[in-house]
Give the backbone structure.
Amino acid sequence: MAAYTARAHTNIALLKYWGKADAQLILPTTTSISLTLNEFYTETTVEFDEQLPHDQIILNGRVLKAHERQKIERFLDLVRQLAGIKTYARMVSINHVPTAAGLASSASAFAALAGAASAAAHMSLDPSDLSRLARQGSGSASRSIFGGFVQWDRGTDSNNSVAHSLKDPVDWPIQLITVIVSDQPKAVDSRSGMQNAFSNSPYYQAWVQHTNNSVPAMQAAIANYDLDTLGRLAEQNALEMHAQNMVANPPFNYLTDTSWGLIKMVQTLREQGLSVYATMDAGPNVKIISRPQDTEAIMTQLQQTYPDLKTQIATPGPGIQIWEEV
Amino acid sequence: MAAYTARAHTNIALLKYWGKADAQLILPTTTSISLTLNEFYTETTVEFDEQLPHDQIILNGRVLKAHERQKIERFLDLVRQLAGIKTYARMVSINHVPTAAGLASSASAFAALAGAASAAAHMSLDPSDLSRLARQGSGSASRSIFGGFVQWDRGTDSNNSVAHSLKDPVDWPIQLITVIVSDQPKAVDSRSGMQNAFSNSPYYQAWVQHTNNSVPAMQAAIANYDLDTLGRLAEQNALEMHAQNMVANPPFNYLTDTSWGLIKMVQTLREQGLSVYATMDAGPNVKIISRPQDTEAIMTQLQQTYPDLKTQIATPGPGIQIWEEV
């Protein structure tokens, strides 16, 4: 069977996914809205090969051992089940999402895997079906099938919990400056963090309600080219997500003193008239939502406040691309 | 008129006061429960003197200037109004609450002032009346009139928003180890912090509800000598208070990386079988609720984790004492 390659880009959530209403199917508690990013992506090639005694997975040039393959094997099992085949696969994947970028790579990784594996299994999935499939590898991967602004409807079953495009390509100037506070693996991984919040945080239900209630306003902000409303909603959503982690059991906290210093720096820049807003995922890095024309002013302030911190700039990116290797 | 001196001790809230339902009368949104502390107190002498052209305030040996006296003058005006006198007062106050202890001194300060000023004005106030009066200087001062475990009922008017004793003296072993993370003045003072939370935090109402709902369980824990329930409720209440500050407008945060390190150290000690719990007020210092018999184990762990941090140990203390100077 032929080898297929897929390239999928990572995304940053403006309204977050943080908790599963159904952990088996990965149905989220919130409808989330994200921006797919051009600069960071995963490229994955899959070929089903009758000769293989088991799945062979090569990640960033390294052959994974049996115990490291389990999550990907389970996902390939799902593809085989849908395609009605039993053949093992060779998967070669390269992550162009540097760890230091502070951006999750599982979104682009499982989106690319869904695209390459389904094509290699001769399934002809449309983007919605690809999104449903990718979701079952990693929730946020459902959004990385699409480019630009994307909404993942939380849904009530595996069919209607699916992402769709809100605006692609993005026809207005928006960028994300990630300030790297730490490139170390986080102490609490997303999966167990969101599970703890879901089960134990007394503020969790309020966060879910606020997130879902913010969806229409976020959609309108995107439709109206309104960076200030978009940024304000995103910053508020991120802070509420982090705040409720602090009261889970045990409590946990991704934001460090430097994260807070950056959040305050963003506030100060805003008081000076710039349209800049902060968002933070499951880690200490602060992502500054801003306009490209304000990059220099932001960088100057950052250089004064935190001269040692590295940054990465990302702009809106495209949806998944899939091709046959020849 | 004769000079009277009052000594009032500071207190630590186990269920917090953080926000005013009525800012004029200082009626709180929550019923709070505290422990009065033996080691930290304010001693204040007040004498009304016909010869004085204005109130004369000497705080820790320093004569306050006109603009520094305003809050105390307003409180003395309240006492004069209640007593039906117009005479100015000489007030000499010494705070035995070192700044570095990380404990608020306004509770003991306004409790002692209420006691000394009302006695000097020949008002014979019972503890409940003193509590109502002290409340109007600083909310938490209402609790410092009483010793041991104290409850301040939030109430609905100036009469029923008053503290009362839950248990005094405290007949079981409980102590508070304050770990001094910073002895600098806080960036956001309590008054404006709680006002911001009250007005702007989307989690504020949940915090108020959880606090008020925790009152019966905290009362039972105190009555039943149940340090673990008391500590668990106190730690949860403090974390929820801090979490909702993070989503006020603007967001603010008193807890630093070191505060979180100490919270985790307390968790670790608990996993090792010790009954230790953390609480934090409007600042980064962490107060460890514990048993005196566990002091050495806690100090050993602290010495290993944060060898440079200073500590202060406090035990249950008495209610206000008032005497005539002769």
The two ends of chain B are 12 Å apart (CA to CA). Chain B has eight helices and 14 strands. Chain B touches chain A at residues 202-203, 206, 210, 236, 239-240, 242-244, 246-247, 250-251, 253, 255-257, 260, 263, 267 (CB under 8 Å).
